[in-house]
UniProtKB/TrEMBL annotation:
Name of the protein described by the UniProt record: Asparagine--tRNA ligase
Domain of life where this protein originates: Bacteria
Domain called Aminoacyl-transfer RNA synthetases class-II family profile: residue spans: 141-472
Membership in a protein family: Belongs to the class-II aminoacyl-tRNA synthetase family.
Quaternary structure note: Homodimer.
Organism placement in taxonomy: Bacteria, Pseudomonadati, Spirochaetota, Spirochaetia, Spirochaetales
Length: 482
């Protein structure tokens, strides 16, 4: 690799002293006056482009003159020149160009990013090109920086990074909204079902399953994972503190601005952590990530604040500097019931809180981030630890202004008898969780964890309005084009 191939972000930080530089990237704009040609080049390494200026009166090489005539928005180029102070406002340096080569053309009659004001919906239809825009270049850099920050946070605190299975035979959430993984031929299965129906006979003998998963690849039904939590718990009970960071999948037929069929989850699990410890590290985690974005991505954050969501910077700074209020679900519902007429979904004890409830609590009742605890057991997963009242579980949700829920977690049930009873109560198959129950049979310990949806975090930090715009290639109902 040629280590002298500098990115534009590196060139822009250099002190101009007449040194030669080479700029590689894609043309954002080209404009001409009588004597000068100005080419704005961006390589995606930072928000800013660099201007390469050519003086036509200086006698340009024939190859450069020919290239300048053919260069249009979107074309890829390599330009050489001298780095100098810029006489124009808004930029500290520019390149006084001496040569430019056209690497790849972008014909103006067919290049879809010629104009500047495209709708988000249109840009989703060209997801392979939208990263070249200011908005999606900024989102891509923010996604990369936040992934780095997540690993840094956990690695600095003694966590081990663990890779949990993408293919699983257990349903962590118990909702059944999972994508099936199979090698069985669906056309053959459909033909057998049609034939049985025509002949008026059952699809399978009594007691047998249809289709027969004994013939499938894994010998039983398998799906894409909805969470790596259960497997992460096995490692937490061996190496104390772990975290996952990987793709998860939900076959939920939700066509909203907050749902994806494929998304990334961060899920730490900590042995010997009670709910209070879990809340402490979740709060520390969110504050750390926000400060990393504000301190290390200032240029992109200024763009999001100016063009995507005005007031974003102030909102994030306030959250990063706040003490998160800690409130029980019961206390929160009491506050919501006082303003019941304001909500589309009427609040009551036992309801699953909606976004409108969460935003009301953070923005109007408590005036900042809130951690809600002790939810009714009926609306939470089987693995959450029961409180002594027998009605609530030691769950927690972290809510932030401007978004609502950003983290969900709990203390896990470490008692074998109680966990077994809960599995049976919910009608889950105990045999599917034999290994999970073993954690309670052998050296069981109190432990806790939480999940943070990576795209949900990015929505909050960037101010983008649709979760499909903070992942490179969104997967949603009827949307998997790339």
């Amino acid at each position: 690799m040629d280590t002298e191939k500098k990115l534009i972000r590196q060139i822009l930080t250099e002190k101009p002293a007449g040194q030669p530089v080479t700029v590689r990237g894609w043309v954002r704009t080209k404009r001409e006056t009588k004597n000068l040609v100005f080419v704005q080049v961006n390589d995606g390494s930072c928000f800013s482009s660099i201007q390469v200026t050519f003086d036509k009166d200086a006698g340009l090489p024939a190859e450069t003159d020919a290239a300048l005539k053919k260069i249009t928005t979107g074309a890829s180029v390599v330009a050489q020149g001298i780095l100098a102070e810029s006489p124009a406002s808004g930029q500290a340096v520019e390149v006084q160009g001496s040569a430019i080569a056209l690497i790849g053309e972008a014909p103006p009659d067919s290049y879809p990013l010629q104009k500047k004001n495209h709708t988000m919906e249109f840009l989703r239809s060209i997801a392979h090109l939208r990263v070249r825009t200011n908005t999606f270049g900024a989102v891509a850099r923010m996604r990369s920086r936040m992934a780095y920050a997540i690993h840094t946070f956990f690695q600095e605190r003694g966590f081990q990074y663990v890779h949990t299975p993408i293919i699983t035979t257990s349903d962590c959430e118990g909702a059944g909204e999972m994508f099936r993984v199979t090698t069985l031929d669906p056309e053959r299965i459909a033909a057998e079902a049609w034939k049985a129906g025509r002949e008026g006979r059952p699809l399978h003998p009594e007691g047998a399953s249809f289709p027969d998963y004994a013939d499938d690849f894994f010998g039983k039904p398998a799906s894409l994972t909805v969470s790596g939590q259960l497997e992460a718990e096995t490692y937490a009970t061996g190496v104390s503190r772990v975290y996952t960071f990987g793709p998860t999948f939900r076959a939920e037929n939700s066509n909203t601005t907050r749902h994806l069929a494929e998304f990334w989850m961060i899920e730490p699990e900590m042995a010997f952590f009670r709910l209070e410890d879990n809340m402490d590290i979740a709060e520390e985690f969110i504050k750390y990530l926000l400060k990393q974005a504000l301190e290390n991505c200032a240029e992109d954050m200024a763009f999001f604040d100016a063009r995507i969501r005005p007031g974003l910077l102030d909102m994030l700074r306030k959250t990063a500097d706040s003490d998160f209020a800690r409130v029980t679900y019961t206390e929160a519902v009491a506050e919501l019931e006082k303003a019941a007429d304001r909500f589309t979904f009427k609040p009551y004890w036992g309801c699953d809180l909606q976004s409108e409830h969460e935003k009301f609590l953070t923005e109007e009742v408590y005036g900042g981030p809130v951690i809600l605890t002790d939810y009714p057991k009926e609306i939470k997963a089987f693995y959450m630890k029961l409180n002594d009242d027998g009605k609530t579980v030691r769950a927690m949700d972290v809510l932030v202004p401007g978004l609502g829920e950003i983290i969900g977690g709990s203390e896990r049930e470490e008692n074998l008898d109680k966990l077994t009873a809960r599995i049976r109560e919910l009608g889950l198959r105990e045999s599917d969780y034999w290994w999970y129950l073993d954690l309670r049979r052998f050296g069981s310990v109190p432990h806790s964890g939480f999940g943070l949806g990576f795209e949900r975090l990015l929505l909050y930090i960037t101010g983008m309005g649709n979760i499909r715009d903070v992942i490179p290639y969104p997967r949603a109902p009827k949307l998997a084009d790339f």
